[in-house]
Design a protein that fits this description.
Blueprint lengths: L15 E5 L3 H12 L3 E5 L7 H6 L3 E3 L1 H7 L2 E4 L6 H12 L5 E4 L3 H4 L10 E7 L3 H9 L6 E7 L5 H11 L2 H4 L1 E3 L2 H16 L1 H16 L4 H10 L1 H19 L2 H14 L2 H16 L1 H11 L3 H11 L2 H10 L12
Parallel strand pairs: 1-2, 1-4, 2-3, 4-5, 5-6, 7-8
Antiparallel strand pairs: 6-7
Helix pairs in contact: 1-6, 3-4, 9-10, 9-14, 10-11, 11-17
């Protein structure tokens, strides 16, 4: 693990960091680095909706190709599916020998959607949390933990500069683990698909549908299968699984330990192994790349269909009465 004392912000003195993109991670990285005293320029197309937002935050905005030309460190924070196009449209022409090219996720390097020239350093800084938390925790004086990796060390100083960047956005406050582009990409995709997103959303919907189909009030089903999930996850986040079990009732703990494996049994574990195999072989990456080349037709259709699920309709109505819930992520 690397912490604040293992990284030196002076590595970034006299250097300009170009942040390509200004979405969830992009805005957090740019603002945190700026607050850390680092010279930052944001690369956005003139037509981007984020231009005025970035300028409103006091940052200088130029075209991505120009930002890459200015940057001694260039961080690619546009969505994975846009990396190749943004790279080919001019960012690659602005990367000079000796520059550090950074990524917030290893997908486009690991699956060779972006192939950097040999004379540049290539690194990874991946906060393990969404951008609004990266920003919020920085402002609170703490930091989201992260991962760092070096894919290419042309100068011999790639790690020192990458750690300086991680410190600038606050990750070394929480602790940074060294990994590889391959391991970061494959574990990240697996976590999203099997547990954090795919697994959790399907489990929530299945539980909700089971109760509603059995005749229970949809509002009760929403509270039991979705709303209370945050309370349990927060306990696990703070205390681990054992700590969560300590904090719930004995009835809940007994039900957890005797019934959980009946829900997540061998078929589920075998499915998880298959998901991981598809990620490791590149099958998932090829599928996602093909989906984007086809205009995301299936992706957009599935997004629209699932947004209309009853749990979404009931949840939206209930949340509208919960004025303590933050509905927008602040910067």
């Amino acid at each position: 693990m690397f912490y604040d004392d293992d990284a030196d912000l002076r590595e970034l003195e006299g250097k300009t960091v170009a942040i390509i993109g200004y979405g969830s991670q992009g805005h957090a990285h740019a603002l945190n680095l700026n607050d850390s005293g680092v010279a930052v320029v944001v690369g956005l197309r003139a037509s981007s909706d984020s231009v005025e937002q970035a300028r409103g935050h006091g940052l200088r905005v130029v075209d991505p190709a120009d930002a890459a030309s200015e940057g001694d460190v260039v961080m690619m924070l546009v969505p994975d599916e846009r990396h190749q196009q943004v790279w080919d449209d001019g960012v690659k022409d602005g990367i000079a020998p000796g520059n550090l090219l950074l990524f917030g996720h290893g997908f486009s390097i690991h699956y060779e959607q972006v192939v950097p020239p040999p004379g540049v350093d290539v690194g990874l800084v991946a906060p393990k949390g969404p951008g609004h938390l990266v920003r919020r925790q920085y402002l609170e004086g703490s930091g989201v933990p992260g991962l760092v990796a070096i894919h290419q060390d042309a100068t011999g100083g790639a790690m020192a500069l990458t750690l300086a960047y991680a410190k600038g956005i606050g990750c070394t406050r929480g602790g940074v683990i060294e990994t590889t582009f391959k391991d970061e990409t494959e574990t990240d995709l697996f976590g999203e698909q099997a547990v954090l997103c795919g697994g959790v959303t399907e489990l929530v919907r299945a539980g909700y549908e089971t109760l509603v189909d059995a005749g229970y009030d949809p509002r009760l089903a929403y509270f039991e299968c979705l709303h209370e999930l945050k309370l349990i996850v927060d306990l696990m986040y703070e205390k681990g699984i054992a700590g969560m079990r300590y904090s719930i009732s004995n009835t809940a703990e007994y039900g957890d330990m005797t019934r959980g494996k009946r829900v997540i049994g061998e078929p589920t574990r075998e499915a998880m192994k298959q998901l991981l195999a598809e990620i490791q072989s590149g099958d998932f990456a090829r599928e996602w790349i093909a989906e984007n080349r086809a205009g995301q037709e299936s992706f957009k259709r599935m997004r629209s269909e699932q947004a209309g699920h009853q749990v979404e309709v009931v949840g939206k109505e209930l949340r509208s009465q919960m004025d303590w819930i933050e509905t927008e992520f602040s910067s």
